[in-house]
Design a protein that fits this description.
The protein has 25 helices and 14 strands. The protein has a six-stranded mixed sheet with strand order 8-11-12-6-13-14, with helices on both faces. A four-stranded mixed sheet has the order 3-7-4-5, with helices on one face. It is elongated. By secondary structure, it is of the alpha/beta class. 64% of the residues lie in helices and 10% in strands.
Length: 712
Amino acid sequence: MWATPSFKGPKMRKLSAAVAAFAVLAALIGAHSKDPDLFVLAVAAGLYAYTTWRGAEMSSFMKIFATIFSTETIVFGFVRLLQGEGVWPQTLASYAPPESMSVTVAVFSIMVYAISRIPVVQEMIRIADLYFNADDRGEARVWPFPRFTAHERGIAIAMIVVLVLINQGQVGISVRLSFFNRDWFNAIQEKNAAEFWRQLLYVFTPWAFIYVTTAVVEYVLKSMLTIRWRRWLTEHYVRRWLGAHTHYGMTLAGGDADNPDQRIAEDVNRFIDGGEEGYGIYSYSILLISTLSSLVSFSFVLWELSGNYALPGTSIYIPGFLFWVALIYASLGTIVTHLIGRSLTRLFFEQQKREADFRFSLARLREYSEQIALLSGEHEEEGSLLRRFQRVFANYLAIVRKRKELMGFTAAYGQLSPIIPYLITAPFYFAGKIQLGVMTQTASAFGRVESALTFFITYYTFLASFKSVLDRLTSFDRAIDSAQATIQNAQVVSRAASPEISLRNLTLSLPDGRRIVQVDALAFEPRQSALLTGPSGSGKSTLFRAVAGIWPHAVGNIRLPEGARLMLAPQRPYIPMGTLAQAVVYPGEAEHFSRAEIEEALRAARLAPFVERLDEDNNWGQRLSGGEQQRVAIARALVNRPRILVADEPTGNLDPVTSWEIIKLLVRVNEIGTTLVIATHNAEIVNALRRRVVHLDHGRVVRDEPEGQYAA
């Protein structure tokens, strides 16, 4: 069984204490050996011990990295102490990590804490923590071992840890190869064939092979992590969106959460893995660690090499001269890049919205293709679609213009960057003060440091796109929270031991606060059949939605019988895609009903010709006529046998013969023991059925006639 890692506050404080103890030990050994580098290590470890203590309440996602770096600070620090005391085994000298490694990882740790305080990063990790705090269990397999189950967060954390270690190893290999590069070019300059081949075969080849192997392992692990993460986060948002009728509340409220389907299908994927661009939160997390690793590791190299070079035209040597040149150059480029491209986030956000609107319009046209063809509305639809695409087109051109300006600057910046270190080192090389290998190593180290410092410039466009995805998911979360709060505050439906349906002091309003229904007292007896009448707009449908528990703007009390199942048959029944059998038993599952039950319900609903097509997978919402869809809704009630059935305008837009067939079927549902309430404004049906009639007008009950006493 996989032991799930825990990164809670007490664990972080224990790590902090361990790092602090190591800092004290490093200071004592530094004083004993008079090694200034150990004092630097002690200071860095002490600062990190403080940030680790302060970061006890940091997000779970960021704590993964903080914990890795804490452990590495102590491990590499002890190796450095052994080296400082001269007790590191000589046989392992070539395998010892660079002396700067312990300081490097301590600096990483401090940076993790600093980055976690940035507001936009906090928004990112708030969404990431949903997965890394998950309590559900998942399955995994590590070849060649058998499959096992563990907490999903434990599997994810383990993969993150391995990926970070692989990434750090790759940076270490890059540093080692920079020294190979120096020695190889020196061998070329000196025409030393033996050293040339030794460096190529025994230094470059094994390290290159290891690098390629780690790259393949990294790809596989990354792919597994991102798809598991996407699956979990997609399920999370689907549950939140569909749970407690939240999707309906969001539709009523409107607001900024447009196209929730696109946010779940596309934005979740782009948040984790970046979609086609390939830069999501995982990519940026690992990429940032790689960038920081390169920055710190090569900064030490560049700082040491800077001692070879004086200020141009002088004999003045400034510690870390080349590092300061790279820092100033990168800072100026970053400022200019942001000033040019700061509007890109807004443009990317708007582009995603307009693209989603256009796709939704196309999908809606396909859904209503028959109605559009019957009305010959193709010309109007064409105009509407092209107008929506014109908005997509116009915003895209705005993005192109802004990216053109940004690309012009970054391309010029990128062309100039590689030249700078050679301009500085060339006079020293031509004067014979340095070798070719030192010159190329200096240029390489300068390039890696400058590249790390220009992270913002290099990825500005992708960061702007990612920020727009983050904004869309954040606003989606806010819309869900708002809808759920409204629904929670409007819980008017309760269950009681009484067998009747009771409405008391019920007030229903629109989202803007306008009152549309007011019911002081109304009750329906069990197994009763009643008609709710009134002109269109009198509040019948809204009242039914409240009884079904989905209307979020309600005050008062609706009591339903304890344990009674209620089913609402809306004016336009929902017919899901899939088999006809599944459409009949919806929202149940076909395997929970016998074939005979489903066939009997279809025959009773006058749909006998479709019995042979029960297993046919089709878009039945488009294949069935309006009357056939209404009959499917009746068959659904016959199969599910609800205690209460509320039918909203079941004969609307149907011919008289079909209307009577539907009404007779509803009466049959009532006869099997279901309390039936039908909303209609068809006076002929009301007069003929002679059932109890409750008449609404302007949202109020103006007449309640018992069965058989309705006056036309």
